[in-house]
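Students often ask why inverse folding is considered easier than folding. One informal answer: many sequences map to the same fold, so there is more than one right answer. In these notes we will look at a single instance of the problem. The structure comes first.
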């Protein structure tokens, strides 16, 4: 089965608004004039009106009830910024939005906004401006990917950056506009104290940025999407201002566990006494192990499990997650929050309880209940993984989305049992 990964502790949960509104992700800390962190909002806009979205603060923990994806409704699973969710002025950034449900036929109206305000009436973006795409959107209908360049002069003349003096902002912007060799020459002759001071200013020169665009689906739904990332200078001083790397989920599998061992099961626990099998629906490092067919039989429980970037090598545990040490010497390691989505592709009945279902959890593994109605064979699963380091206000959240397709193969015994119940 290869190297198994250890489950992370449960972290922040998420919850959407009622009806057709959905808050995919939000983590804000309020400071004078700025929202810190990053955000991802999806608002369901139909031809006959707008369903509005609510906003919540970072201290509120909530649980998603939007794990089921319906075939007739457009859903956004997540938006990933690559190569990292924090970019420097002049960098090229690639954005991939992942969708589920009703097929997306086009995406449009790409804009950036640096200033946004909120009130009881909602979120207002003060200065959204159209961006020039380097590539036309590709990947539809399951995803949409675009690329664009961050304005190299975005910090010039910009005020309100956490009380950093305007002349300091402009001086740092001009310093980083030098060629890579010239910049390294300047940094090489600077003292450690000067580099540390520069790093502290760069930490505060953080510009939370919103990408706004609209997805259009087959049934006429228009879905406005707001996804957040951070602009800051960090690449020349990675030791002082370390960038955030996106999680890299390298596998997703179905675990088949004897029912008498299901209580307390963890696919990452080396002390687990029961035998279980894993069917990889996705395996980045060894695609030959993948099989979309999932065998369902009586006497077993089933779990979805995903990579958590914690590797066991014998008695040692190696975490691949990002770490950070703040100016006071405090050490932090990322936690991961998992949001699971599923879709019954074969809608053979309107009675949802007889179809595939999954538990609601932010863990890296989650119980899956196969369909009782054995006519429902084809399914889809997505997992959206967010990283977080507590108490680091200027660090954006990284994200990874994996989506898979599968087919249930029901045993004769399972079919007989379900037909009798």
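Output (designed amino acids):
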């Amino acid at each position: 089965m290869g190297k198994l990964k250890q489950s992370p502790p449960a972290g922040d949960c998420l919850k959407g608004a009622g009806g057709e509104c959905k808050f995919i992700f939000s983590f804000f800390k309020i400071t004078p004039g700025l929202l810190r962190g990053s955000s991802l909002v999806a608002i369901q806009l139909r031809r006959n009106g707008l369903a509005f979205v609510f906003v919540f603060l970072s201290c509120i923990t909530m649980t998603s009830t939007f794990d089921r994806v319906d075939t007739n409704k457009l859903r956004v699973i997540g938006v990933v910024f690559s190569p990292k969710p924090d970019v420097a002025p002049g960098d090229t950034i690639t954005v991939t939005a992942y969708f589920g449900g009703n097929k997306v036929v086009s995406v449009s109206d790409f804009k950036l906004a640096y200033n946004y305000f909120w009130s009881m009436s909602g979120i207002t973006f003060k200065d959204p401006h159209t961006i020039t795409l380097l590539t036309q959107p590709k990947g539809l209908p399951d995803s949409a990917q675009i690329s664009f360049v961050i304005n190299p002069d975005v910090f010039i003349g910009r005020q309100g950056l956490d009380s950093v003096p305007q002349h300091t902002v402009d001086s740092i912007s001009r310093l980083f506009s030098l060629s890579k060799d010239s910049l390294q020459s300047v940094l090489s002759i600077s003292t450690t104290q000067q580099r540390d001071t520069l790093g502290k200013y760069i930490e505060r020169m953080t510009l939370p940025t919103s990408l706004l665009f609209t997805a259009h689906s087959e049934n006429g739904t228009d879905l406005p999407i707001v996804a957040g990332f951070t602009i800051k200078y960090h690449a020349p001083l990675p030791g002082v201002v370390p960038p955030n790397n996106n999680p890299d989920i390298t596998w997703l599998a179905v675990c088949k566990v004897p029912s008498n061992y299901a209580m307390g099961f963890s696919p990452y626990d080396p002390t687990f006494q029961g035998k279980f099998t894993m069917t990889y629906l996705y395996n980045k490092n060894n695609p030959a192990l993948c099989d979309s067919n999932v065998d369902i039989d009586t006497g077993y429980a089933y779990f979805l499990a995903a990579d958590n970037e914690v590797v066991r090598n014998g008695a040692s545990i190696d975490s691949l997650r990002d770490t950070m040490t703040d100016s006071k010497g405090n050490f932090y390691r990322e936690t991961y929050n998992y949001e699971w989505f599923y879709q019954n592709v074969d809608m053979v009945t309107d009675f949802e309880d007889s179809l595939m279902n999954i538990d609601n959890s932010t863990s890296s593994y989650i119980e899956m209940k196969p369909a009782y109605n054995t006519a429902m064979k084809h399914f889809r699963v997505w997992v959206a993984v967010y990283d977080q380091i507590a108490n680091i206000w200027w660090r954006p959240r990284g994200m990874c989305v994996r989506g898979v397709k599968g087919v249930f193969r029901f045993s004769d015994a399972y079919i007989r049992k379900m037909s009798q119940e």
